[in-house]
């Protein structure tokens, strides 16, 4: 249960992709998926987005890059979560301190 709590905190903590702050709670990821779908379908060539610094306009290429980076990052967190759950079941990950020390994936900046 504690590991799940930490994983949720990581997922909801937000990320930066090439200098653009992205909210990664469920609503943020949903909005990002919607923006990605709009540009992929050709319905939009750019997307208006709001960051902590204010409103910005992102190109279809920028939205695609951000959405793919965030999607891959989410998957990496779930891969690591599964590995750590297995370690808990095996008895090799046993304390909150060990869980707190887990190095969660980050998004490489370009």
Features:
single chain, 110 residues, alpha+beta, two-stranded antiparallel sheet, 4 helices, 4 strands, 57% helix
Brief digest:
With 110 residues, the chain is an alpha+beta fold. The protein has helices at residues 2-12, 26-41, 60-90, 96-100; strands at residues 15-17, 20-22, 46-51, 54-59.
Structure description:
There is one protein chain. With 110 residues, the protein is α+β, with helices and mostly antiparallel strands. The chain is built from 4 helices and 4 strands. A two-stranded antiparallel sheet has the order 1-2. Helix 1 packs antiparallel against helix 3 and helix 2 crosses helix 3. The longest helix has 31 residues. The radius of gyration is 16 Å and the shape is elongated.
List the helices and strands and how they pair.
Blueprint: H1 2-12, E1 15-17, E2 20-22, H2 26-41, E3 46-51, E4 54-59, H3 60-90, H4 96-100
Helix pairs in contact: 1-3, 2-3
Give helix % range.
55-70%
Given helix and strand content, the structural type is: alpha+beta
Distance between the termini: 35 Å
Count, helices = 4
> Rg, please?
16 Å
Major pleated sheet: 2 strands, antiparallel
Query: What is the number of E strands?
Result: 4
- Sketch the topology as an H/E string, one letter per element: HEEHEEHH
Shape summary: elongated
